[in-house]
Amino acid sequence: MLDFGFDKLALIGAVALVVLGPERLPRVARTVGHLLGKAQRYVADVKAEVNRSIELEELQKMKGQFETAVNDVHNSVREGVDSANQTLHSTWSDLSVEGSSSSSDAYGDLTAPTPTYAHPGKNWRLKRGATPLWYKQRQGVRRHAQSGAARVARFRPPRRAS
C-alpha cells in the first residue's frame, strides 16, 4: 500500500482543515472512514473467495487421488478373491472327483446335499402363557389392554371424604 508517515498525515490533515474548514471536516473524515472500511471488507471478501476456490481445487485433486487409490485397492482385492475362488473351485472339483471314485474312503461322501435351514418353531406367545400368574403380577406384566383414562383412574389417589 501507500507508505505514509506521521509527518505526511499531519500535512494532509492541515491542508484538509484549511480547505474544508472546521465545520465540514468531521463529516468528511467520517465519510472517508466509512468508505475505507467498506473497501477493506471488500478486499477481505475477495481474498476469502480466492482462498476458498484454491482450497476447493485442492480438495478436488485429493478426491481424485483418493478415488484412484480406492479403485486400485478394490481391483487388487477383487483379483485376490477371484484367484482364491478359482483355487477353491479347482480343489473342490478335485476332491469331488476323488470322492466319487471311491466312496468308502475316510472322508465319506463329499457330494452329499447340504441341509436346509429349518425354523425352530418357537412361539413367544406360548412362552408368555407358560409364565405363572403370580410372577406376572409381581413383575407388573399387563395381562389386559387398558385405556389411558382407565390407567389414570386406577392409579389416582382416593378422594377424601368431606
TrEMBL record:
Entry membrane topology: Single-pass membrane protein
Region Disordered, annotated ranges: 97-118, 138-162
InterPro entries documented for this protein: TatA/B/E, TatB
Pfam families: TatA_B_E
Predominant location category: membrane
Biased composition (Basic residues): 153-162
Keywords per UniProt: Cell inner membrane, Cell membrane, Membrane, Protein transport, Translocation, Transmembrane, Transmembrane helix, Transport
Subcellular location: Cell membrane; Membrane
Protein function: Part of the twin-arginine translocation (Tat) system that transports large folded proteins containing a characteristic twin-arginine motif in their signal peptide across membranes. Together with TatC, TatB is part of a receptor directly interacting with Tat signal peptides. TatB may form an oligomeric binding site that transiently accommodates folded Tat precursor proteins before their translocation.
Subunit and partners: The Tat system comprises two distinct complexes: a TatABC complex, containing multiple copies of TatA, TatB and TatC subunits, and a separate TatA complex, containing only TatA subunits. Substrates initially bind to the TatABC complex, which probably triggers association of the separate TatA complex to form the active translocon.
Family: Belongs to the TatB family.
NCBIfam families in the cross-refs: tatB
Entry protein name: Sec-independent protein translocase protein TatB
